[in-house]
Amino acid sequence: MRTAAPLPLAVHPLTREAFAPYGEVVEVSDAVRHFTINAGNTERYHDLANIEPGPDGRVIVSIFRGQPRSLPFTVQMMERHPLASQAFVPMSGKPYLVVVAPAGAPPAAEDLKVFLARADQGVNYATGVWHHPLLALEGVCDFLVVDRSGPGHNCDEVQLDRPGVIEAL
Is the pLDDT of residue 4 over 90? Predict the structure, then answer.
């Protein structure tokens, strides 16, 4: 039973370094390997995320349509995918929030980290990393999702004993 007031959660800019414990940031950057292809007409930003389908899975591509959330937003649950990674790449040109916690035991509010992703940044959650479902901010947002299809249970959800609250950006 929840008795404590929600824990205020600070929002941090999404950077490759800050997000590294949870997976990869998918973005165009001089910091990633890139090279020119197609007779000099295209710059390829190469191998931006480690897509892990698990031993019996296959990689699939889907589109998720996220409904907008307003602030303050109370984080009451988290989920993880114990068999595979899951990548989200925004398609609607709008920023969004990313809430994560380390892989392992179910998280507490104190374990949560909140990032503000720019409209040109995607994320790839490493296998087993706890995360909140999509948190679109400025209207309906579509995301290209790269994840797993296959046998086995690949989604665990937990309710937090004490919720967190995102009060402002």
Answer: no
Residue 33: the pLDDT is 96
Give the pLDDT mean for 50-77: 97
DSSP 111: G
Q: What is the pTM of this model?
A: 0.95
Compute the distance between CA of residue 163 and CA of residue 169 in angstroms, rounded to an integer.
Answer: 18
The answer for residues whose C-beta is within 8 angstroms of residue 115's C-beta and 6 or more apart is 11, 12, 13, 14, 18, 19, 97, 98, 99, 100
In this model, does residue 98 exceed pLDDT 60? yes
Domain ranges of the chain: 7-166
Location of structure tokens 């899951």: 86
Helices H / strands E in the chain, number of each? 1, 15
Q: Look up tokens 């790269």; give the residue.
A: 146
Distance, in Å, from the CA atom of 131 to the CA atom of 16, rounded to the nearest integer, reads 17
CA distances from 116 to 14, 53, 64, 73, 168 (A): 6, 27, 19, 14, 11
Contact 92, 138 (CB under 8 A): no
CATH class of 7-166: mainly beta
Beta carbons of 134 and 88 less than 8 angstroms apart: yes
